[in-house]
Amino acid sequence: MSVRNVLIVGGGFTGLTAAIALAQRDVRVTLVDKAQAWARVGHGLTIQGNALRVFAQIGVIDEVLAVGQPEEGLKLALANGHVLAEMHTPRTGGDDLPPTIGALRPDLHEILVAKAEDLGVEIRLGVELASFESHDDSATSVLTDGTTASWDLIVIADGIKSQNRAKLGITEDRAPSGLGIWRAVTTRRPDMSGGIAFPTENDGRAYKVGYTPVSPTHCYVFVLCHPDRPDNGLEDWQEVRRLMENYHGEFDELRESIGPDTFLNHQEIEWIFVEGPWHSGRVVALGEAVHAVPPLIAQGAALCVEDALLFAEYVTGEGDLQQQLSDFHDRRIPRIKGVVDASLLLAKWEQNPGSRDAEPERVMNDALVALVPAP
Ligand SMILES: Cc1cc2nc3c(=O)[nH]c(=O)nc-3n(C[C@H](O)[C@H](O)[C@H](O)COP(=O)(O)OP(=O)(O)OC[C@H]3O[C@@H](n4cnc5c(N)ncnc54)[C@H](O)[C@@H]3O)c2cc1C
Asked: Is there an atom of ligand 1 within 6 Å of 112 CB?
């Protein structure tokens, strides 16, 4: 094995999972993140079975299942409350794991940080990569804390807004998806098990709303909408309620539960897919730095942690490192492309409700079924 010490830039799902998987294979890992401290608040996520499979492989599944709310599927309804179908989510992580769980991002993050620290990963916060150089048998970094060091590999895991991607010669950049999203963490009745509602007309409000339980008492609600927040004088919570106004059934209760104290966030949804090489010499980009999709199949984090574990397996095996990095990339591309293509098609349909050829349920299901075989 030629890789013994690695610098990881970015401590999200990708960077932390890579750090854990490498440390478990006797690699010395230093991880830097520009955040001054880890955020303790954050939104809900739907974590699919294939992410849970990775969490099982890196030894954190018990902790993850303890903070998550398992779900077998979700209810598909029209905005007026009429239920169309119950969708059973394919078990992308195999029969031993739930098809999905809902959980709060900071809870999952905390589990990964604790595991990385237990394994001796050195984590340095408030630090960025100022510059790097790749040589035949090492890569050197200059960090913003003024230190210079030499590594067998540098991993760029700094997310969709990566400041380092272009320095690897990658010319693709993030692009708008045409969608924006509001997310709110709020209360739910215990029998409300998760669902999505589609609009019956294009009335300029929400393209779609949905919710996922994250605990026996709470859920996160998402509202897909136009990316621009209108300047209508409404406070954030009032704007979310306005966007949800025509959604009924369970969404009446969820809307009423949103108020001035609700934890809310609005963002434009962007995407990127780098089909060409992810590495240059001994510096490699992983996760959302090279592939991010509108979260319409909820596969973002799953693909990131799959990247991270598989990457660690490749680069700690016997063989030529450049060949390993190429083989790893070639193996990832078709799997990720399937999710990218399906997510972009779904994003197009979201913006054109009533498209005659729209089959969102089939496209979501097919994309997930394709992920059932291990990566
Ligand atoms: C609205 C929305 C909803 C989503 N919902 C889901 C969902 O339900 N299920 C799901 O699986 N996925 C979902 N995703 C996708 C998921 O959040 C991402 O796939 C995942 O978080 C990406 O992980 P990452 O580690 O690659 O990047 P990030 O999570 O972005 O982490 C990057 C890290 O790098 C650090 N960083 C950035 N720049 C630098 C720098 N220059 N130097 C050092 N550190 C740096 C950041 O502080 C951060 O800690 C959603 C995404 C969005 C936008």
From this structure: no
